[in-house]
Amino acid sequence: MKSVLNILTLVGASLLMTSCFDKSAPNYQFFPNMYEPVSYETYGESNVFNSPTGEKGKVSQIPPAGTIKQGFVPYEIPNTPEGYAASKANVSPLAADQIDAERGKELFTIYCAICHGEGGDGKGNLVKREKFLGVPSYKDREITTGSVFHVATYGLNSMGSHANQLSKEERWQVADYVMKLKSELK
Fold it and tell me: How many CB atoms lie within 10 A of CB 6?
């Protein structure tokens, strides 16, 4: 009797499990997009947005004219040789109590000393290893705080811009520290 009951339970469980399975009509899924997401190709066209020209699937990623990113302070002097010459007349907008020589030295060590050297002599580690050649000593240059800020903002020759790494105030701190180094090199 016990074996008949076990056999009937086994047959009933098998029927129950196989009766719910149908290859032609699978079970319902709640929230199917969670299981089968719509995939988008990176940088591919999408018909989600309309472009300004009205073409479906072509979206302009250019920000509207006259807009600037939040927190960005524009620098009015252009990146031209004339702008560099004009920048020499600029003075630091930082008040004397805002100039932090230690902070300027720290930022210079992080971002500038690898090429310009700890003392501003143009003999940083990359120059010693001949990765960059022709990095000038500050002693030989006719620079001002404004011109150093201009070069840190836009870059010059093989030196790139540091405007993304350093805020406006930090670039002025570095410029003040560079002028301190220049005075010590004489």
Answer: 10
Q: Which pair of structure tokens corresponds to residue 25?
A: 């009509």
Q: Are 158 and 132 in contact (CB under 8 A)?
A: yes
pLDDT tens digits for range 94-113: 888 888 889 999 999 999 88
Note the pLDDT tens digit of each residue in 25-45: 666 667 777 767 667 667 666
CA 146 to chain CA centroid, Å, is 25
Amino acid at 35: Y
Note whether 120 and 105 are within 8 A (CB).
no
Q: Is the dihedral of CA 26, 32, 33, 34 positive or negative?
A: negative
Spell out the domains of the chain, with CATH numbers in brackets. Answer: 81-185 (1.10.760.10)
Largest Cα separation within the chain, whole Å, is 110
CB-based contact 130:112 (threshold 8 Å)? no
The model's pTM:
0.63
